[in-house]
Amino acid sequence: MINNKIVRFFLCIFPFCFLALVCKAEDINSIKSKGYMTMGTSADFPPFDFFKEGKIIGIDSDISKRIAESLGLELKIKDISFNALITELKNGNIDFIAAGLTKTAERAESIDFSDSYFTASQRLLVKSDSLVSRLEDIDGKKVGVQLGTTADSYCTDDLENIEIMRYDKATDAIAALSSGIIDIVVMDDFSANQVVKKNKNLRLIDGNLTEESYCIGVRKGNLILLRFINETISEMKHNGEIERIVSSYMNIPEDVENSNTSKASEFLKREYIQYIFNGLTVTLEVTFFATLLGVALGTFASSLRIISETNKHLKIFDMLVSLYTTIVRGTPVIVQLFIIYYVVLSGISKSPIVAAIMTLGINSGAYVCEHIRAGIEAIDKGQFEAGKSLGLSEGTLMSRIIIPQAIKNILPSLAGEAISLLKETAAVGFIGVMDLSLAGKKITSITFDPVLPLFAVAVIYLVLVVGLTFILRKIERKMKNASN
Ligand code: ARG
């Protein structure tokens, strides 16, 4: 009897076990069928991950190339905010993380780690003339860390009486230290050493604060990929390859972009101009399509509203539109961006640009809808009554009398909406869209000089806004004259 139960139990769970195994195998097979695998990193961490001539290079990419080779695949690399790496891995936007990523118990709850390929420790980085010379001196100081790193958790959990400033990029924290905004940066020793070599105004303080192991991160349960990665790491450890790769990066040649010689001439480097130009193109593209989507959605929503006002049975439309405008106008656009990119579109579209256009379009639609409502409400109530008493139908009254006048009221606010949308596109950098603002920020993180790139970006926005205002005013005037 009991035996029978056990057999039945195993028969029941067998299909699930089989399915689970097939799914795991699926993961590696789907990577293989693509012909390439995607490594996710945060390229602000020399010598592990950094930009050179527009390409991401470093110890991690060299090791990852060997892993891809062992599977007969090409390697693609995606630059992502360190803090978003695990989410991007879980969402399937990358196949593995190689980012000087420390194995921690907390992270191991959401991803699996390979064997270690490097050991590291947190260290204090200060300005050369700083009075801080040991850990005890940091009381009351402003300490910069990269958001979501082990430096962040060390400072949060183990240090008291400090003000922690969290930066998206490690290089932003270093730039803040160089310009005296913060007193100390806590970061990984090996990378900090490279920074000090290039920045004579910074120095490292003796003493390791933690003990950490760098590992490669894969999706939880992706055991087949993990096995390939571990085999390659072990082979590379034994034949001395890892050591050779590491020492090849010990002396970063002079032309590496993470230098501190950023003067106007450096900013004008063709490559940086290219970043700005590409960023500008993306900003204009996102603004254009989001405006179109916003106007379409806003017009649609306000039409629904008008229809529901004329017919009591359709009140539900009015409620839906109110819900839409309330939610959109009551939540920050960045939160909306995260929800659309990481939740709504996850598994449907991996393109952050699509998410950016959708979010800004939906967001703007709610405002457009309100502008249209305000434009209609501004029309003297007497006109509705006069129209009705003349026996005009609801439709004729709206299309012939009210809407043409409302358009005149609405146009200026629509123009204002397009302009604020252009500026709001700056939020898209949060999901990694390389727009104009992020391009500026990226240059600062390479040159450690915030002044020139950020001012250049501000001037470009200003020129765009002034230009757009001018064009929209002209259009507005033409339309007004035409309708008079
Ligand atoms: N080892 C640290 C951590 O895992 C810092 C890694 C930072 N890596 C980077 N590519 N910025 O939290």
CATH homologous superfamily annotation of the largest domain? MetI-like
Catalogue the ligands.
arginine
Structural class of the secondary structure composition?
alpha/beta
CATH level-two architecture of the largest domain? Orthogonal Bundle
Q: What is the makeup of the main sheet?
A: 5 strands, mixed
Shape: elongated
For the secondary structure, the number of strands is 14
Please give the structural blueprint.
Blueprint: H1 2-34, E1 36-41, E2 50-52, E3 55-57, H2 59-70, E4 74-79, H3 85-90, E5 96-97, E6 111-113, E7 118-120, E8 122-127, E9 142-146, H4 150-158, E10 163-167, H5 170-178, E11 184-188, H6 189-198, E12 202-205, E13 212-214, E14 217-219, H7 223-238, H8 241-248, H9 264-267, H10 270-310, H11 315-330, H12 333-344, H13 352-377, H14 381-389, H15 394-424, H16 436-447, H17 451-483
Parallel strand pairs: 1-4, 1-5, 9-10, 9-11
Antiparallel strand pairs: 2-3, 5-14, 6-14, 7-13, 8-11, 8-12
Helix pairs in contact: 2-7, 10-11, 10-13, 10-15, 10-16, 11-13, 12-13, 13-15, 14-15, 15-17, 16-17
Bound molecules: arginine (ARG).
Brief overview:
With 484 residues, the chain is α/β, with parallel strands linked by helices.
Describe the fold and architecture.
The protein has 484 residues and is of the alpha/beta class. It is built from 17 helices and 14 strands. A 5-stranded mixed sheet has the order 4-1-5-14-6. Strands 10-9-11-8-12 form a 5-stranded mixed sheet, sandwiched between helices. A two-stranded antiparallel ribbon has the order 2-3. Bound molecules: arginine. Arginine is lined by residues 41-42, 44-45, 49, 82, 99-102, 146, 149-150, 170, 188, 212.
